[in-house]
Amino acid sequence: MCTHPNKKTDPRRLEAELAEVIEQVRGTDGGEPSDYLADVDGRDPDSFAVAVCTTDGVQADEGDESRAFALQSVSKAVTYAVALQERGLEPVLQRVGVEPSGAAFNELTLHADGRPYNPLINAGAIMTHALIPGDDEQARMRLLLQRYSDLAAAELSVSQDVLDAELARAHRNLGLAHMLQAADMLPDDAPEVVRGYLAQCSVEVTVSQLATMAATIAAGGVNPVSGERVLEEWVVQQTMSVMFSCGMYDASGQWMAEVGIPAKSGVSGALMGAVPGALGIASWSPRLDGQGNSVRGIGVFEELSARWDLHVLRHRDAMAGLREITGGNAGG
Ligand code: GLN
Prior knowledge:
The chain has a single domain (11-312), classed as Beta-lactamase (3-Layer(aba) Sandwich). The strands form two sheets. Strands 2-1-8-7-6 form a five-stranded antiparallel beta sheet, sandwiched between helices. A three-stranded antiparallel beta sheet has the order 3-5-4. Strand 7 (270-275) and strand 8 form a beta hairpin. The chain has 14 helices and eight strands. It has 332 residues and is α+β, with helices and mostly antiparallel strands. It is globular. The two termini are 30 Å apart. Bound molecules: glutamine (GLN). Glutamine binds at residues 72-73, 105, 122, 166, 173, 198, 201, 266-267, 292. GO terms for molecular function: glutaminase activity.
């Protein structure tokens, strides 16, 4: 990694590091790909790709990096950011909380006040999708695709095959949406919102595009590849906070302690992490553990966090702001 503040990271060094990490983690076996996706495209369960994009716009990828995969639950974090940006903080908080649920992602429970616990479990993600402005399903999805594409610096689209597979198995998500409608939380027709939510889950990306999305979040909302401001700073701060506390399903606490990077995983084996001010990381490997997180993805993030000292709670001098306020003496 570069040490000089004005010198850009060398992409070849990054690629060499990623190639080493892939070799190191490839042998990690265990886990099974999600059964409902396996029949969609005959995807090789041993596919494996890793990419990074730094906040100064340097990109590197390795492995099966040209293959596209569905965002799945990773989309929940991105849609939350778009909802915050479009609606503002308070209107979103009135509809969906920010507390870890401690239960599985598709749990059929709501807060006592009727709100889903957080936007990264299915109930909260369905609620959040409904907050995207637009008169109908198509309008909401057009806006989301535009924002997702801005974050990725690429034109993204929905995989119809994945969406068809999702729609054929949507009973539990429909149950969640009806539950929200019964609690007067969903303003719209429940089945329409579920169709939209499943379409956002079916947006396909390459690992490099996913790393760029993460890097835009890490860079305070400015896409480091296109130079475009996509999200405001408070939006990415709020989004990363929820990713940190809730992004890895009911393994989020362990992830926070061991890896220390705000992240979001998906049932396709996708994993995206944002290290504020530093870089975005993405991995894709379809074999999942019991909590639904990619087994090798966890291995990649553990290794990169240790190698590059990325744990966001590592000890560092954070007194600069206070020193400025107190005239230079705070903290000695
Ligand atoms: N589309 C999936 C669902 O809602 C997403 C699940 C996931 O990635 N955990 O069932």
